[in-house]
């Protein structure tokens, strides 16, 4: 806590549920997910074709591994989570549980029970998590659909998370949630571990319910329709303008305030570049808001409930009351754009170097220069 700060924020504890919802002795379970970017960029400004095929998160894994941030590659892919397909979402969440890094935390009664710290040598213990979850899924403690007990508990747990992420209040007359297809880009990442043969039949390319938390986050993320390669020249246009007219910084709301006027600039930015600084500022602000959505967290808190309880997840057994919240919505700083541009270049270049096989000629040359020495024994 900064004791020298002139103000502070009093925020709710999102790992808990209101007391009137808790009629059961079992404390609430809270899952915090940092989903990251859920689409592939489709801007014509992109210079590296791999960015249209492999998502930023999957490419960034190679860079983090090389720099010692993590010891193992995560098999989680955000495009699977944002797909709306329960099978792809299941695979994404299962991979998060196996390698959470800093994208997954689980709380029980407000206490952290599962996460991955910055120490890359940390050994993850799913068995401990299963023991915490057993009381919430009692019918999974025996063999369930042919699964071993621990696996059955995790399966049920993942289904609860999927249901919460897909839940929404907007339904049509048939009771089915309205779907919304937001992305204009390729609907899957080539680095995803989801089986390609299942993707070919097309049944796993679906859409998100319009009112779901994932659809709302994805819609904001897609305000970045130019990619950092298209934004950086516009940033330099703004910088050149501010060098000539430094007093315009406040009018253009470079440092806020983040009020209705700021949001009007974000929502009403022209679609085509007219060469003005207003267009450049609008696009830069859109990018900053999109980057905030790409780095936000989702908090899913649930606890066992009775049949007549409100805000229930649509599950057969057991029943849970739940809440879904979004946090970590601090605006991304304007000054961070040059860093994002450099980081993007590093990530892409390292990914290309680490995944491209050496040319056959070089392999042949290595074999030519190899010499075997035999010694008498």
Approximate helicity band: 25-40%
- The count of domains is 1
The arrangement of helices and strands along the chain is EHHHEEHHEHEHHHHHEEHH
Distance between the termini: 70 Å
Percentage beta strand: 5-15%
* Unreliable residue runs: 170-177, 362-368
Number of helices: 13
How would you characterize the largest beta sheet? 5 strands, antiparallel
Shape: globular
- In total, the number of strands is 7
What topology, given as strand order, has the largest sheet? 3-2-1-6-7
Q: Strand pairing plus helix content: what structural class?
A: alpha+beta
- The chain-level mean pLDDT equals 84
Tell me the Rg in angstroms. Answer: 24 Å
Topology record:
Layout: E1 29-33, H1 56-66, H2 78-81, H3 86-98, E2 104-108, E3 111-114, H4 126-133, H5 149-166, E4 179-180, H6 196-200, E5 208-209, H7 213-221, H8 227-244, H9 248-251, H10 260-267, H11 277-294, E6 297-304, E7 320-327, H12 337-355, H13 360-369
Antiparallel strand pairs: 1-2, 1-6, 2-3, 4-5, 6-7
Helix pairs in contact: 1-12, 3-5, 4-5, 7-11, 8-11, 8-12, 10-11
Overview of the structural elements:
This protein has 377 residues and is α+β, with helices and mostly antiparallel strands. It has one domain. It is 38% helix and 9% strand. The protein contains 13 helices and seven strands. Helix 1 (56-66) crosses helix 12 (337-355). The protein starts with 28 loop residues before the first strand and ends in an 8-residue tail after the last helix. The model is unreliable at 170-177 and 362-368 (pLDDT under 50). Phosphorylates Ins(1,3,4,5,6)P5 at position 2 to form Ins(1,2,3,4,5,6)P6 (InsP6 or phytate). Keywords: ATP-binding, Kinase, Nucleotide-binding, Transferase. Its EC number is 2.7.1.158.
